[in-house]
Amino acid sequence: MAEQNNGAVAANEQQAQFTIQKIYVKDISFEVPNAPQVFNEPGQPQLELNLNQKVGRVAESLFEVVLEVTVTCKLADKTIYLAEVQQAGLFQLAGFDERTLDMMLGTYCPNVLFPYVRQTVGDLVASGGFPPFYLQPINFEALYAEGLRRRAEQVQANQAPGAGNA
């Protein structure tokens, strides 16, 4: 009996398929609005990093995942540079249950895209004449878990007595 159950699990695992169809830069921008004066500005610049992810269904089992990274470097109130990259990928995911599919799109796909976006941002900053910028590793599993926690809190808040009665 145990062998039959193991066989059923193996059959289900074999049905799930993950394939990277294409990885590409969807959008890219680099600005140095106050050049060339900013190259002589004294002081310690401040970096701000914004990260966003979008998932879109292209076909029944084909998904586009876009990892958006924006790096803003400022000195006081002046923008030194602004780098924006949308690194995208087309991923074929078939045979996954909804929970696993959501997890794959929220963690595994961004992990695949991250090295590409890190390289692109670093190249942009260096090509702009600035010291190298190394995007630190990101724990997409932790970000995904935090997103699940927030969604659960929102659902609970909406279901609370009187939540919809204003």
Automatic annotation (TrEMBL):
The protein depicted here goes by the name Protein-export protein SecB
| Subcellular localization | Cytoplasm
Q: What Gene3D superfamilies does the record point to? A: SecB-like
Q: Which UniProt keywords apply?
A: Chaperone, Cytoplasm, Protein transport, Translocation, Transport
Name the family: Belongs to the SecB family.
Which Gene Ontology terms cover its molecular function? Answer: unfolded protein binding
* Annotated GO CC locations: cytoplasm
Q: How does it assemble?
A: Homotetramer, a dimer of dimers. One homotetramer interacts with 1 SecA dimer.
Question: Example GO biological process term?
Answer: protein tetramerization
Domain of life of the organism in this record? Answer: Bacteria
The free-text function statement in the UniProt record for this protein reads:
One of the proteins required for the normal export of preproteins out of the cell cytoplasm. It is a molecular chaperone that binds to a subset of precursor proteins, maintaining them in a translocation-competent state. It also specifically binds to its receptor SecA.
Q: What is its main location?
A: cytoplasm
Q: Does the keyword Membrane apply?
A: no
